[in-house]
Amino acid sequence: MNLIAAWFSHLNDTTGINFTVFYDPFDRARFVQGFLVTLELCGVTITGSVMLGILGAWGQGAASIWLRRLVQFYIQMFRNTPPLVQVYFFYFGLSALLPEVKNSLGMSQPLIGGFVWASISLICFAGAFNVEIFRSGIEAIPHSTIEAAEALGFTRLQTYRQVVLPLGLRICMPALTNNLVNLIKTTPLAYAIAVPELLYVSNQIWSDNENVPEMMLLLFIIYIALVGVLVFIMHRWERALRVPGLGL
Amino acid sequence: MVEPLLIIDNLHKRFAHVEVIKGVSLTVGKGEVACIIGPSGSGKSTLIRCVNALVPFEQGSIKVLGIEVNDPKLDKLQLRKHVGMVFQQYNLFPHRTALQNVMMAPIQVLKRNKPEVEAEAYALLKKVRLEGKEHSYPGELSGGQQQRVAIARSLAMKPDLMLFDEVTAALDPETVGEVLITIRQLAEEGMTCVLVTHEMGFAREVANEVYFTDRGVIVEHAPPASFFANPTDPRTKAFLSQVL
């Protein structure tokens, strides 16, 4: 660790290529903190948007026309508007309508903070696509298979959980991976509402040290690595779900 | 006269503007086997799909063990616990093994405990002569084997009535035999069966009553011996002369 710090410090002294995060403890601490926030944001939004997709796809097939219309309205809202506008809509629009609370220092602050608003808006954004992705998988299942479950006495929920979802998921896996990759790449939007994630802390660091190109390079590498890990996990999952003779 | 298990009375069914069933009545007694034959498009499949409420119908009455299928307040799950159905295309759950396919409905629908259901599932697969294939996925089984898993899957619900919808139509002539053996075995054990089939020889062997349908009506019905030896209606005669 010391060796690395010394090397980067030396690099800065001799060439002016300045990776402060590797030798300056203060910059390293905030960079790591930003990375953790980004990780958390990715984890929360991936989980949330997949669950929202599953629920929405269920709602699309509901008997109630109002539930189906509600899902359709939601998809149109969040698929057809820019994600940055959505983040602003939640943070500045909805948040202003909610009451403020006093924090421990006696100052008033919004009821819901930036991180939560960013999570909510990104979940809604990616969830809208996930609903349509799950629908594409579900619609590819032969109707006769679902009919067989019906004939055996399965309720609609049982059919969805036991037959429709496991089969649909296998079919839509590649599309789902694509959308989740996109979601990871959309998380820096949280920067716009001052969530201290990776891009935000990088901005702070390069403002202090005037090392924009170095920080940009680091950002690229970290996002490539993050997406690489996600794709790796999704491929492993896809392989684990593979069923002999099913061809999926 | 045995006690009737299935009573269909003056059934009518239309899809949009086409009336596919125009007043069909038939009664199947407990432990009896009814075979429905007839040209394609004569409403045979629709008829038995009405019986377990897979398709709704407008007019008439179907009673299974006294349960009226045409009741708007019908508890479909209750009905389907009594009625098993086997399809032309097997329709197994491709992501589950043969054993899991058989176990799913009793565990999910009847909420029975797993060890008990598992023991029964092994026994059922043995009964349909699929010992050793318990852990194969449907995609790894032949058509005939898949269809026998489908039969075992229906039997796991311990139905009182089994519906077979052209279950051998997708199979090659050699594998047809292995599925028919299983159905015959069921009939011999006293299972009440309604079969839609093109297997005339099989109908002649196992049926108590053969029904010939054409364009939505039952043209003629009789016990197999007289049905095949002395058909009376000209349409039946024409059909039989083509297929026999």
Q: Keyphrases for this structure?
A:
heterodimer, A: 248 residues, mainly alpha, MetI-like fold, 10 helices, 77% helix, B: 244 residues, 9 helices, 10 strands
Characterise this structure.
The complex is a heterodimer of chains A (248) and B (244). Chain A has helices at 2-15, 20-23, 25-60, 65-79, 83-97, 114-139, 143-151, 156-186, 198-209, 212-241; strands spanning 100-102, 108-110. With 248 residues, chain A is an all-alpha fold. Chain A has a single domain (2-240), classed as MetI-like (MetI-like fold, Orthogonal Bundle). A two-stranded antiparallel ribbon of chain A has the order 1-2. In chain A, strand 1 (100-102) and strand 2 form a beta hairpin. Chain A is globular, with a radius of gyration of 23 Å. Chain B is of the alpha/beta class. Helices cover 38% and strands 26% of the residues of chain B. Chain B has nine helices and ten strands. Chain B has helices spanning 44-51, 76-82, 98-108, 114-127, 143-155, 173-188, 200-206, 224-229, 234-243, and strands spanning 4-15, 18-29, 33-37, 59-64, 67-68, 83-86, 161-165, 192-196, 209-214, 217-222. In chain B, the strands form two sheets. Chain B has a six-stranded mixed β-sheet with strand order 6-7-8-3-9-10, sandwiched between helices. In chain B, helix 3 crosses helix 4 and helix 3 (98-108) packs parallel to helix 5. Chain B is globular, with a radius of gyration of 18 Å. In chain B, 48% of the residues are buried. At the A-B interface, helix 7 and helix 8 of A face helix 2, strand 6, helix 3 and helix 5 of B.
